[in-house]
């Protein structure tokens, strides 16, 4: 009996040590009294979060051979940090609520494994071609930047609410995997007929509060099951053979405040850290 209890205690102690080791691989630095970038983070870091500080400069990020997630949020940084030492391992990169105005892709090291990029709430007016530097990108978040234009990426999910965009991203190259585009509160007034590709997984399109006056034929977008268009601000013509889309449009017209269960689900997904799989 004693031996059994002793073994159980040892087992719990070992488990606690393992859990402590795992938790210690996530490093968070925060506080408005922090003015300089910390260089005391252990080399075994898997996740680094630098948030809510007065840091205004990140010269470089040291080599962390196991680093998968890096977040720089709500700081005073105005230049995109040098991430070349961790470019081969990063899966998720969040740089939001800073003063960054550009993504210097020509000077950036390629991040072949990066799946999620969140650059929301900065001051970026243009997104350059991201296909070379982020060839595996699945989810692109660039909300509330004042974006006026953007180039191509490999992303299958776009969260671009609250910008100045007048047209959809280029979607033809990602048609096979495209699943959702969230672009409420932009400056689009029309959607050209060739802007929406025939995408077998394209399930959701949110274009609320854009002032859209014309909408294309949706018969080729057979997978679309939720289309969000605000009837109080968007006046449009819709031609479709898809019952699901037609019902969604009618619901938006008749009940502007109505939110379907599928939309509630996607709203939960529209958050930093969502989406790192490509299927």
Characteristics:
279 residues, alpha/beta, Leucine-rich repeat, LRR (right-handed beta-alpha superhelix), 2 domains, two-stranded parallel ribbon, 3 helices, 12 strands, 15% strand, elongated, Leu-rich_rpt, LRR_dom_sf
Short description:
The protein is of the alpha/beta class. Helix content is 15%, strand content 15%. It folds into two domains: 25-100, no CATH class; 122-279, Alpha-Beta Horseshoe (Leucine-rich repeat, LRR (right-handed beta-alpha superhelix)).
How many structural domains are formed by the residues?
Answer: 2
> Going across the major beta sheet, what is the strand order?
1-2-3-4-5-7-9-10-11-12
CATH topology name of the largest domain, in short, is Leucine-rich repeat, LRR (right-handed beta-alpha superhelix)
Instruction: Round the mean pLDDT to the nearest integer and report it.
Output: 78
- If you compute it from the alpha carbons, what radius of gyration comes out, rounded to the nearest whole angstrom? 22 Å
Number of helices: 3
Protein structure class: alpha/beta
The coarse silhouette is: elongated
Order of helices and strands: HEEEEEEEEEEEEHH
In CATH, the architecture of the largest domain is Alpha-Beta Horseshoe
CATH superfamily of the largest domain: Ribonuclease Inhibitor
Description:
Residues 252-264 have a biased composition (Polar residues). Residues 267-279 have a biased composition (Basic and acidic residues). Residues 1-24 form the signal peptide. Keywords: Leucine-rich repeat, Repeat, Signal. The chain folds into 2 domains: 25-100, no CATH class; 122-279, Alpha-Beta Horseshoe (Leucine-rich repeat, LRR (right-handed beta-alpha superhelix)), CATH 3.80.10. It is elongated, with a radius of gyration of 22 Å. With 279 residues, it is α/β, with parallel strands linked by helices. It is built from 3 helices and 12 strands; from the N terminus they run αββββββββββββαα. Strands 1-2-3-4-5-7-9-10-11-12 form a 10-stranded parallel beta sheet. The N and C termini lie far apart (50 Å).
């Amino acid at each position: 009996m004693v031996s059994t209890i002793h073994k159980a205690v040892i087992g719990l102690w070992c488990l606690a040590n393992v859990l402590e080791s795992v938790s210690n691989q996530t490093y968070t630095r925060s506080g408005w009294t922090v003015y300089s970038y910390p260089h005391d983070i252990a080399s075994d870091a898997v996740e680094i979060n630098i948030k809510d500080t007065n840091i205004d400069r990140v010269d470089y990020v040291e080599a962390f051979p196991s680093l998968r997630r890096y977040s720089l949020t709500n700081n005073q940084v105005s230049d995109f940090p040098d991430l070349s030492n961790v470019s081969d391992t990063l899966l998720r990169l969040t740089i939001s609520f800073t003063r960054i105005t550009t993504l210097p892709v020509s000077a950036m090291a390629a991040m072949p494994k990066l799946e999620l990029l969140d650059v929301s709430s900065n001051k970026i007016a243009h997104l350059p071609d991201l296909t070379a530097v982020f060839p595996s990108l699945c989810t692109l978040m660039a909300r509330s930047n004042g974006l006026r234009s953007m180039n191509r990426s490999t992303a299958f999910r776009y969260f671009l609410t609250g910008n100045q965009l007048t047209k959809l991203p280029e979607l033809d190259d990602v048609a096979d995997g495209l699943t959702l585009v969230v672009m409420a509160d932009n400056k689009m007034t029309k959607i050209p007929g060739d802007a929406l590709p025939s995408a077998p997984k394209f399930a959701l399109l949110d274009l609320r509060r854009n002032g859209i006056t014309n909408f294309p034929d949706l018969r080729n977008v057979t997978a679309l099951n939720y289309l969000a268009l605000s009837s109080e601000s968007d006046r449009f013509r819709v031609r479709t053979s898809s019952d699901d889309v037609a019902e969604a449009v009618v619901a938006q017209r008749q009940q502007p405040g109505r939110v379907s269960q599928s939309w509630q689900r996607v709203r939960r997904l529209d958050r930093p850290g969502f989406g790192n799989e490509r299927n």
